[in-house]
C-alpha cells in the first residue's frame, strides 16, 4: 500500500541483493582485468616477466664468445713467425682479417672447428698490422675484437741475387737461380717464401747447392713459349738466427724457341737443333787431349761480343792471355766457353781439338765479320740455350758449375 513502510526483512533482502550484485560485478571486473591486463603489462615490460616465468631466451643478452688475439694490442718488435694467432672460446671464429697499413692482406688458415686462425706464412719485418676478428656463440650472437701490432726491425739482413732478369726471353734450359748474400741455415723457411709458377703449368722443384744458392727447374727443359713467374717473399724470413730477408719482389721471364746444340768432341762438329730440326752443322775445335772439354748439358749463362780470357784466372798460369776473344758465351763458372777463334789455323776446325777446354768456332778478329760460323752461332743464341757436349775424354760437368743442374737426375734434384 502507498505510504506503507517497508518491513525490516524485505529491506534487508534488498540490501543483501545489492551487495551481492556489486560483488559479482567487481569479481567480473577483476577477472577481465586479470585476463586482459596481464597481457598488456607483459607487453609493456618487453616480456621480462614472461621470459622469467616461461624460460624463453634473452634476445638482447651479450655474446658468450670470447676472442683472443696474440700478440696483444699495441705490441712492438713482434717476431715475424710464430707470434700471431687468433682464438675463440665459447664460440667459433667466422671472420679474421689481417692486413698491413697499405692494405696488403695476410693469408691465413682457419681451424676446421673454428677455434683458431694462424697465418700460413711469415710476416714482413718493420711493419704494422691490424687484426679484425669476429666469433659467434651457440646462439648466433657475435663478438668482435680489433688490435694493432708492429713487427721487429732486424739488425742483420740478406737478399737474393737472381737470374734471369725480369722480362727477359731465354732458352729452354734456363733455371731460376738465386744466390743469397748470407749463408742460409733454415733453407725450408726460405724456400717456402719463394713461389715459382709456369704457364702452361708444369711441376717445378727447387734444389740447394750449398747454403747460399737455390735453383728451380722442371723435370725436362721448359716448353717453348712458357711464361715463368717468380715471387720472392723474403721480407721477414729468418734465414739464419738473427738474420732476416728484406726482399719482396715478383719477376717473370719468357721461354723462347727451343734450341739445343750438340757438340761431338770426337767428330769435331756442333749440330744446332731448333724446334726439332737441325738448322746448321758447324765445325769446331774442342779441348786438346791434355785439357779436355767437360761432357754434359751446359746452359749459356752470359754472352760477350768481345772479352778477355786470361789462363791465370782459371788455373792455367800464363799459358794464354787473349784480350779480344770474339763471340764468347759462357757455359760454366770454371771458365768453359763456346767462342770464336781467330788465332788458330782455319784447318783445325772440324779436324783437331786444340783448346784449353772451350769449344772454338772459326771467327774474325774484332767480331766484325757476320759471315763466320762463330758470328752466326752468337747471333742465333739466347742466354738459357743448351749446349750438350759428348764423346770428350773428360768427366761430366758438375751440376753446380754454372747453370747446369740438368746433369742431375730428377729424383736426386727433388731429394
Number of E strands = 27
Sheet with the most strands: spatial strand order: 21-20-19-27-22
Which fold does the CATH topology of the largest domain refer to?
Answer: L,D-transpeptidase catalytic domain-like
At CATH's second level, what is the architecture of the largest domain? Answer: Beta Barrel
Description:
The protein is an alpha+beta fold and 415 residues long. The chain has 3 domains: 66-150, Immunoglobulin-like; 156-255, Immunoglobulin-like (Sandwich); 259-414, Beta Barrel (L,D-transpeptidase catalytic domain-like). The protein is built from 5 helices and 27 strands. The strands form 7 sheets. It has a 5-stranded mixed β-sheet with strand order 21-20-19-27-22, with no helix packed on it. Strand 6 (128-136) and strand 7 (142-150) form a beta hairpin. The chain is elongated.
Set down the secondary structure blueprint.
Elements: H1 8-44, H2 48-54, E1 66-70, E2 85-89, E3 92-100, E4 108-110, E5 116-119, E6 128-136, E7 142-150, E8 156-158, E9 160-163, E10 169-170, E11 176-180, H3 187-192, E12 194-199, E13 205-209, E14 213-217, E15 227-233, E16 238-240, E17 243-245, E18 248-255, E19 259-264, E20 269-274, E21 277-283, E22 296-299, E23 302-310, E24 321-330, E25 337-341, E26 359-362, H4 373-379, E27 386-390, H5 410-414
Amino acid at each position: 500500500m502507498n505510504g506503507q513502510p517497508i518491513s525490516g526483512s524485505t529491506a534487508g533482502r534488498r540490501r543483501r541483493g545489492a551487495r551481492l550484485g556489486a560483488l559479482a560485478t567487481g569479481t567480473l571486473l577483476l577477472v577481465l582485468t586479470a585476463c586482459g591486463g596481464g597481457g598488456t603489462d607483459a607487453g609493456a615490460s618487453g616480456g621480462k616477466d614472461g621470459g622469467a616465468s616461461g624460460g624463453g631466451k634473452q634476445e638482447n643478452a651479450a655474446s658468450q664468445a670470447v676472442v683472443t688475439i696474440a700478440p696483444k694490442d699495441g705490441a712492438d718488435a713482434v717476431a715475424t713467425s710464430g707470434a700471431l694467432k687468433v682464438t675463440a672460446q665459447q664460440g667459433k671464429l667466422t671472420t679474421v682479417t689481417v692486413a698491413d697499413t697499405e692494405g696488403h692482406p695476410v693469408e691465413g688458415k682457419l681451424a676446421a672447428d673454428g677455434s683458431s686462425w694462424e697465418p700460413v706464412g711469415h710476416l714482413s719485418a718493420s711493419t704494422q698490422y691490424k687484426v679484425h676478428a669476429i666469433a659467434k656463440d651457440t646462439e648466433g650472437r657475435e663478438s668482435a675484437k680489433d688490435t694493432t701490432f708492429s713487427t721487429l726491425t732486424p739488425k742483420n739482413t740478406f737478399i737474393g741475387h737472381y737470374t734471369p732478369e725480369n722480362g727477359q726471353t731465354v732458352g729452354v734450359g734456363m733455371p731460376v737461380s738465386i744466390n743469397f748474400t748470407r749463408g742460409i741455415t733454415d733453407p725450408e723457411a726460405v724456400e717456402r717464401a719463394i713461389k715459382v709458377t709456369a704457364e702452361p703449368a708444369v711441376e717445378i722443384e727447387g734444389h740447394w747447392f750449398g747454403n747460399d744458392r737455390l735453383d728451380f727447374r722442371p723435370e725436362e727443359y721448359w716448353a717453348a713459349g712458357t711464361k715463368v713467374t717468380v715471387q720472392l717473399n723474403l721480407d721477414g724470413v729468418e734465414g739464419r738466427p738473427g738474420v732476416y730477408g728484406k726482399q719482396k719482389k715478383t719477376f717473370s721471364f719468357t721461354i723462347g724457341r727451343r734450341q739445343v746444340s750438340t757438340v761431338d768432341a770426337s767428330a769435331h762438329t756442333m749440330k744446332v737443333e731448333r724446334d726439332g730440326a737441325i738448322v746448321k752443322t758447324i765445325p769446331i775445335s774442342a779441348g786438346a787431349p791434355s785439357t779436355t772439354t767437360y761432357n754434359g748439358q751446359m746452359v749459356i749463362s752470359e754472352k760477350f761480343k768481345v772479352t778477355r780470357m786470361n789462363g791465370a784466372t782459371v788455373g792455367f798460369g800464363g799459358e794464354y792471355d787473349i784480350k779480344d776473344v770474339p763471340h764468347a758465351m759462357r757455359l760454366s763458372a770454371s771458365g768453359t766457353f763456346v767462342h770464336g777463334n781467330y788465332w788458330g789455323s782455319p784447318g783445325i776446325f772440324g779436324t783437331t781439338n786444340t783448346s784449353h777446354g772451350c769449344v772454338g768456332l772459326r771467327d774474325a778478329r774484332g767480331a766484325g765479320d757476320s759471315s763466320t760460323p762463330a758470328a752466326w752461332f752468337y747471333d742465333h743464341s739466347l742466354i738459357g740455350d743448351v749446349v750438350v757436349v759428348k764423346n770428350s775424354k773428360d768427366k761430366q760437368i758438375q751440376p753446380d758449375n754454372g747453370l747446369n743442374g740438368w746433369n742431375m737426375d730428377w729424383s736426386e734434384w727433388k731429394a
